[in-house]
Amino acid sequence: MSVFLAKRFLTFVATLLGASIVVFLVLEILPGDPSMTLLGADADEEAYAALRLKLGLDEPAVLRYFDWMWGMMQGDFGISYAYSVPVMELVWGAMALTVPLAIFAMLITIVVALGLGVFAASRHNKPGDYVVMAFSQLGIAVPNFWFGILLILFFAVNLGWFKAGGFVQWEDGVWLAVKSLFLPAIALATVQAAILARTTRSAVLETFREDYVRTARAKGLTRSQTLWRHVLRNALIPVITVMGLQFANLLAGTIVIESVFSLPGLGKLVFQGIANRDMPVVKDIVLLLAGMVIVVNFVVDVTYAVIDPRLKVHDV
Amino acid sequence: MALLEVKNLDVTLATSRGPARAVRNLSFDLDRGQTLGIVGESGCGKSMTALALLGLLPENGVTTGSISLGGQDLLALDEDAMCGVRGNRISMIFQEPMTSLNPLHTIGRQVTEPMLIHQGMTRDEARAEAVRLLERVGIASARQRLDNYPHQLSGGQRQRVMIAMALSCKPDVLIADEPTTALDVTIQGQILDLIADLVSESGMALILISHDLGVIAETVDRVLVMYGGAGVETGPTASLFQHLAHPYTQGLFAAVPKLGSGGKGKSRTRLSTIPGLVPELADLPPGCTFADRCDLADDKCAGTMPTVHDVANDAGHRVACLKPDDAKSRMATSEAGA
Ligand SMILES: Nc1ncnc2c1ncn2[C@@H]1O[C@H](COP(=O)(O)OP(=O)(O)OP(=O)(O)O)[C@@H](O)[C@H]1O
Ligand SMILES: [Mg+2]
């Protein structure tokens, strides 16, 4: 187990390093000069030069990369160009919104998708199956930002059950904070749930055709006992693979959805960061998102090993 | 009345090419302690017959006729009642030990499952019984094996586990569908001996499905030969091997090296195979299913249901054929020529 963890940790560090290089290079190539954005287009040449010097933009790229990495390793995330506060502070505040939002959306995705997927599989080729499949087709086709706007119009504007946007801080009441994340989470979860429901359905149907399921039936288990005891856990393996991929999609989705619902989260922060050429913010957040995706993949791998005894933990 | 009576069993599968009769008008019975072998080429409906007995046909299948177990008509039972029969009064062992066990459950969990659902045992009682069963089927250090997963066992061991599982509720009828086909030749004999021992020890009835005539000759008292879903010949093993009353049975035996019955000593090697391919179910003629491939068949055979004749004086040896005398005289000449 400890060998496994050590190996995983090395992979984690290596992947993160790779990601950091990619992020850095992409932002290097990105056109636009931060000093230009910060000072506006009509400041004089000396002011630009002074600012570039102050921000260390004149140093060679390699040096700036190592500076960044060295700082990160010591927990120094740098100072935002645009807000002149430590990036850490900005990120921390935004994470308090985005991480719960992503988890909330993932929970909705899992509950809805597993429920509908298993239901559809158990009604294979019957009306219930067709209805679920039709809805999931619709769910996949609808863009999440547009669905978000529909949700706002209907539940916030027409019915007045929710606020049309904005985030109630956790200190002002957990319930209110959760409530303000409700519509965005649904907008995020819809597509993912539709995809995952299909995956679940086909995994369950596939597993029902396995020889050991026939054995279970021959032992005298009813169809539903067979489903719960012999089919679901086996069907979960492909479902979990897709879930892992979906988490990355969800994080990307927050960038759009946070704008639609005017939520001050990581997505909004990175979006503004790009607009402002606020490089420290962008670099750090992208790296952070990459780190989260890698951690989720790790969790997925460990889950495989827990579910399937054929995979020894060190095989993963 | 026999323990298991199957009368005019028909299994029809709905396919894209229309209804296919996978089993047609099949009748046989079986008493406690009796062993019946079902032989026939691949696709002749052996497995469908077995699955029909358990009520586990694929979703597109319909069964008609009657299957009575201890006087109870199984086809009249609802799904819940059938669940009480499966694994409890009729058990089945399948061909593929590698895939027939759930890879994610321990051996112990899988072997105890039937006892937990049918006999209301506690987990501890069922585990103790599972140890006893695993020891009986020849699994070493059975207690430790309970916590193993299927991938930690060899194919032969897994088939032993399947047998232990099938026997756990002391069924009246055990169906073994090609239980040794997927196994090593050296293991095959051991598994068959084990099944034979267990059957004689418990007095249950056995249906052994196989296309290996050697296996059949050594293990069962009676044989049912199937072709195209229909039973073409049935009788006591010795009598059947001696008379080969149906042209199909003759072809089947000619297609493999002759086996020890009749003590002819010299074994015949592959003399002839049955000409032609097994036709698609939907293309089978309404009369004798074998008519297309039978060299004795005339115009009548394909259109007329074959009549059933008693063979020689043997009790219960019957053949379904319109030309049993032609088949018999051919046997006589080939015996003389051998
Ligand atoms: N789900 C299905 N739908 C339609 N036809 C099927 C289906 N399953 C099997 N069949 C057909 O039913 C016939 C009988 O199949 P069955 O499995 O009983 O053969 P078998 O005698 O057991 O052969 P084998 O020795 O290969 O196991 C075959 O012709 C097969 O093609
Ligand atoms: Mg078969």
Q: Give the assembly state of these chains.
A: heterodimer
The percentage of residues in β strands of chain A lies in under 5%
Radius of gyration of chain B: 21 Å
Write down the overall mean pLDDT of chain B.
Answer: 86
> What characterizes the major β-sheet of chain B?
8 strands, mixed
Order of helices and strands of chain A: HHHHHHHHHHHH
Distinct helical segment count of chain A: 12
Distance between the termini of chain B: 42 Å
What would you call the shape of chain A? globular
Helical content class of chain B: 25-40%
Anisotropy-based shape of chain B: globular
- Largest interface, per-chain counts? A-B, 22 and 29 residues
Q: Would you mind describing this structure in some detail?
A:
The complex is a heterodimer of chains A (316) and B (338). Chain A is built from 12 helices and no strands. Chain A has helices at 2-29, 34-39, 45-55, 61-73, 87-122, 127-141, 144-158, 174-208, 211-218, 223-260, 266-276, 279-307. The model of chain A has no long low-confidence stretch (mean pLDDT 85). Helix content of chain B is 35%, strand content 22%. Chain B contains 12 helices and 12 strands. Chain B has helices spanning 46-54, 79-85, 107-119, 123-136, 142-145, 155-167, 185-202, 213-219, 237-243, 247-254, 299-303, 324-337, and strands at 4-15, 18-30, 35-39, 61-69, 72-73, 90-93, 173-177, 205-209, 222-227, 230-236, 308-310, 318-320. In chain B, a hairpin with a 7-residue loop joins strand 11 (308-310) and strand 12. In chain B, helix 3 (107-119) packs across helix 4 (123-136) and helix 3 (107-119) packs parallel to helix 6 (155-167). Chain A binds chain B through residues 210-212, 214-223, 225, 229-230, 233-234, 307-310, and chain B through 54, 56, 79-80, 83-88, 91-92, 94, 96, 99-105, 113-114, 117-118, 149, 151, 162, 165. Adenosine-5'-triphosphate binds next to strand 1, strand 2 and helix 1 of chain B.
